[in-house]
Amino acid sequence: MKYNERIRALREDNDLKQHQIAELLRIGQKTYSDYELGKTRIPLESVIILAEYYDVDLNYICGVSDVKARFPKK
């Protein structure tokens, strides 16, 4: 699964709307929609925010792993 598919699945699994995640990332809803559609690459800083928010490992969001490991704590 590609990262854009993964961030959409995570959002939908948590019953969230695009505008809610866009607010979290401090971007417009259209920009976030473009991330999910794969039209625009999501910045690494935003991927980290999403991983922490959803409490999943970056490898999961990036599609490297299908295991939903928890976000590492410091």
Output the keywords.
single chain, mainly alpha, 434 Repressor (Amino-terminal Domain), 74 residues
Question: How does this model look, in words?
Answer:
By secondary structure, the protein is an all-alpha fold. It has one domain (3-62): lambda repressor-like DNA-binding domains (434 Repressor (Amino-terminal Domain), Orthogonal Bundle). The chain is built from 5 helices and no strands. The longest helix is centred in the first third of the chain and has 11 residues, at 3-13. The model has no long low-confidence stretch (mean pLDDT 96).
The CATH architecture comes to Orthogonal Bundle
| Element-level helix/strand string | HHHHH
* Count of DSSP H/I helices: 5
Instruction: Characterize the biggest β-sheet.
Output: none
Mean pLDDT across every amino acid position:
96
Poorly predicted runs of 5 or more residues: none
Total DSSP E strands: 0
Over all CA atoms, what is the radius of gyration? 11 Å
What is the domain total for the residues?
1
Distance between the termini: 28 Å
Label the structural class.
mainly alpha
CATH class: Mainly Alpha
Q: Specify the CATH homologous superfamily.
A: lambda repressor-like DNA-binding domains
Q: CATH fold name, please?
A: 434 Repressor (Amino-terminal Domain)
Shape: globular
